[in-house]
């Protein structure tokens, strides 16, 4: 719905009216019912992935109930179909778990905190992102053996932070919402006040380390000089250079096509960034295994050089498949999945990578697929979820809740959502109940996957 012609009062009334159709307490409901075998979902996803990498995906998912949850986005998307929604939609992440938030450099060279994974982004119910986040907090707490009270406190903190932030955004102008962001340097002092001196030292060190993770750092870590030319070194199956995947004749052809691909993708950038990209030339490329849920999709790193060998740019080129949300809600209005990812990322993030773009590429197997591009490293850093203590999990959950609300406020009717959520903790408590119930379901699904691995139904190779 286009709400630009509605008054703030009319938008608030819209949100309050939704309470009658969908009581806030109803969000506690989760009835698994007659659902598809979770292993079948994993088997279905494997059919579109590189066969030899699928066991690595299963291996990474098998590490814990939380890593299973990270990779089980499609399973939860199918489960969310039957849950209550207000009918108010937003550009949603589709996979807003704790591990998909983190730090990176803004174009203005400030470190910001934001959502950083948009493979599943789509238009959908804002509640789905909130529930995905809340359940991830509960599951992470269980993985670390936190008490029931400690876990619930952290979940409530995430949802409360979302609700209160949305209330604040409802009172802001459109431009104020658009410019809102979390500057790490500004937020850090307040966070450090709530943790021990020992933990504060660890956090400072993590932030400082993130600032060193750029193209030059990746260049030094992942390349060697071969006959005076930098080449990406091999670490199969996680990193496999182009020359190991094809013969010499095919490599020359593919290198030429990759060079054309970089030029073609560049046309999706702003004109000034196109000019910058043209100052680099492609030198080498390698297939790289990434993430947990993404393992098996086609992902590459491309090495480009500028003025000399001390002026590198390393791009990540990642396949954009059909969003798991589209599998259960219908097709995206984007004809190109790379554009879907980029469009969603630009809309939800406060600031996006200057090299973020997309293209459609013919692969080494002759298949044509959609990809998106971004810098491989640009001060990118994240919190090790398993290292958080109860207080740290609660603080981090609060930060993620605020960030998710800001992302939704940019694309949705923030006034209606805020009016629906209200001032009481009714919604918070309901979603915390949902998170607890869904964590139980996640454990059952995790056990089902582990049984499938033990019986040989799923192949698993744990590489971490």
Q: Describe it for me?
A:
- The chain is α+β, with helices and mostly antiparallel strands.
- It folds into two domains: 8-210 and 384-454, no CATH class; 215-375, no CATH class.
- The chain has helices at 8-21, 38-46, 54-61, 65-71, 73-80, 126-143, 148-170, 174-179, 184-192, 197-210, 215-222, 242-245, 248-266, 271-277, 324-329, 337-348, 390-409, 414-421, 426-454, and strands at 89-92, 101-105, 111-115, 122-125, 182-183, 223-226, 229-232, 239-241, 281-288, 299-305, 312-319, 357-362, 368-375.
- The strands form four sheets. Strands 8-9-10-11-13-12 form a six-stranded antiparallel beta sheet, with helices on both faces. It has a three-stranded antiparallel beta sheet with strand order 2-3-5. A two-stranded antiparallel ribbon has the order 1-4.
Overall form: globular
The count of β-strands is 13
Largest sheet: 6 strands, antiparallel
Low-confidence stretches: none
Radius of gyration: 22 Å
Q: Structural class, judged by helices and strands? A: alpha+beta
Mean pLDDT: 92
Number of helices: 19
How far apart are the first and last residues' alpha carbons, in Å? 46 Å
Walk across the major sheet and give the strand order: 8-9-10-11-13-12
Overall number of domains = 2
Which strand-content bin applies to the residues? 5-15%
The helix content is 40-55%
